[in-house]
Amino acid sequence: MLRIYIISILLLSWGCHRKGNSIDISTIQIPHTQLNKSDQGLKRQGGKWFYKGKPYAGWIIEKYPDGTTKSKTCYYAGGEHGVSQGWYPGGSKWFERPYILGKKEGIHKVWWPSGQIKQVAHVTQDIYEGNVKSWYQDGKLYKDFNYKNGKEEGHQRAWKSDGRIKANYVVENGRRYGLTGVTNCKNVVEKKQN
User: Fold this and answer.
1) Of 25, 87, 141, 185, which has the fewest CB atoms closer than 10 Å, so is most exposed?
2) Rounded average pLDDT over 152-159
3) DSSP track, 152-171
4) Mean pLDDT over each residue of the chain, to the nearest integer
5) What are phi and psi of 84, to 5 degrees?
6) Contacts of 95 (CB under 8 A, 6+ apart)
7) Among 90, 56, 50, which Cα is nearest to 70's?
8) Residue 98 near residue 76 (C-beta atoms within 8 A)
9) CA 66 to CA 70: how far, in whole Å?
10) Is the overall model pTM greater than 0.90, yes or no?
């Protein structure tokens, strides 16, 4: 948790650029306005949220039918900005995803309904950058992949639910070397002869 706060502080201390204008994100102040996602004045257009025709700044809350909170996301100029959080119907954490000016940024986490971690992904400007791990519901590691500029790079590993290796390969310059977990197709003639 401390790691997320440190990363957030570092990200807030850097300036961001948008359409040639420099925006110091540390000066952005989000209003304490909260709208329910079902509010009639709230519309999504072109990947941004608008309230009564203007880009929305504040919080959008989504509720389950019983009134408990499903998700809570902060917005600035219509785009996500800050940490978006979600919960399962029983109240256990579902996801935690940081954003900066509408772009996914930082460590994104997803949990199974049991509370067991499901995925941890490092994201920069909406693309995977660094390590991404996924787990089965029982806590066994499913995938341990590495990315550079949104593409697989370096050592990639995946396991079956019984723990056997499914894939174990290295990606260098876009080329895979090793066990990719993909079975090569055989044509019909080859199948009949075997």
Assistant:
1) 185
2) 97
3) E-EEEEEE-TTS-EEEEEEE
4) 86
5) -90, 135
6) 84, 85, 86, 108, 109, 110, 111
7) 90
8) no
9) 10
10) no
Q: Which two tokens stand for residue 188?
A: 């019909």
- In this structure, are residues 111 and 134 in contact, taking their beta carbons and an 8 Å threshold? no
Given its phi and psi angles, is residue 159 left (phi above 0), alpha (psi -120 to 50 degrees) or beta?
Answer: beta
- Write the CB contacts of 132 (distance below 8 Å, at least 6 apart in sequence): 119, 120, 121, 122, 143, 144, 145, 146, 147
Say how far apart CA 109 and CA 190 lie, in whole Å. Answer: 45
Domain positions in the chain are 1-16+31-111, 132-194
Mean pLDDT of 30-34: 90
Over the stretch 48-73, which tens digit does the pLDDT of each residue have? Answer: 999 999 999 999 999 999 999 999 99
Cβ–Cβ under 8 Å, residues 54 and 138: no
Q: What are the residues facing 42 on neighbouring strands?
A: 51
3-class secondary-structure state, position 182: coil
Specify the pLDDT at position 8: 43
CA distances from residue 90 to 87, 116, 137, 179, 190 in whole angstroms, order as listed = 8, 14, 17, 40, 53
CB atoms within 10 A of CB 114: 12
Contact 106, 81 (CB under 8 A): no
